[in-house]
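Sequence in, structure out.
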Amino acid sequence: MARQSAKKRPANTIVRGNGNVFADLNLPDAEVRQTKLWLVCALNTVIDAQRLTQDEAAKRLGLNQPKTSALRNYKLERFSVERLMMLRNALDRDIEIVILTRAEQGKAAAAAESDEMRRELARRIEGIAAAQRGKEAGGAQ
């Protein structure tokens, strides 16, 4: 299905994206921008999980505070993908690079989506079971 240009679409039309908002917006270097975004999101997740202040994160990452602030605020222009990968390693996190054909990538994405659906279903079933156990425990008193 070919994408329509924004000029030809009515203003209230919703178009499903392709998974990369930068490509959807026709920005240059869309794949690089997407990769940087994923890496910084992962960095910020680790910083949040470890409850590091910007000063503490700066020391661990070997950056000054303004650069750490830029990372925390997703201002990525001055960071290369390689540098972001090294920063992730500085937080004791490994990066695994997997090269797939487009067909393999589609299968991997479908499998990941299927796995996520299974996990969500398991969470829901566990929630229902916990609620049922609660009702049974309440009724036994």
